[in-house]
Amino acid sequence: MDIRMTAERLAQQGWRRHAPKGFTGLIGPLWSRTEQGILAFGLIAGEDHLNPAGLVHGGMLATLLDQVISTASWQAVGRLPCVTIQLDAQFLSAVKAGAFVEARAEVVKKTREIVFARGELTVSMTIVATGNAVLKILQAVSSH
């Protein structure tokens, strides 16, 4: 099974380039598409994403999990900013350079102040990492 993806193949599957600001913009290029109203992310693993063993760095995978989980939470609470206060990640399989890593998340529960969510990363429909997170909802900042 060919796990390598090209920009052309991704575009044919409905993915588009996603250019987030700040730290997350440094991990890409990221791809995104809306699936059932929720934003999914993808990343073609490159040489810059590898650890000394030649596999995608666990910190890179955790960052991608955090990105997709926080985005799903942000969408679920009416686009109020959410910050991660806990993230538990489980790495199930190594990811090699060239693989297209897909990231999806769902909100499990939300209260007025807290969101509980989970996410998973897949390569060719095989789960390579999962994560559970608790996020704090930041209330809209007043301009007065």
Automatic annotation (TrEMBL):
Listed InterPro entries: ACOT13, HotDog_dom_sf, PAAI_dom, Thioestr_dom
Highest taxon of source: Bacteria
Presence of keyword Metal-binding: no
Pfam families linked to this entry: 4HBT
Gene3D superfamilies associated with the record: Hotdog Thioesterase
Keyword entries, A-Z: Hydrolase
Domain named Thioesterase: residues: 54-121
Annotated family: Belongs to the thioesterase PaaI family.
UniProt-recorded name of the protein: Uncharacterized protein (TIGR00369 family)
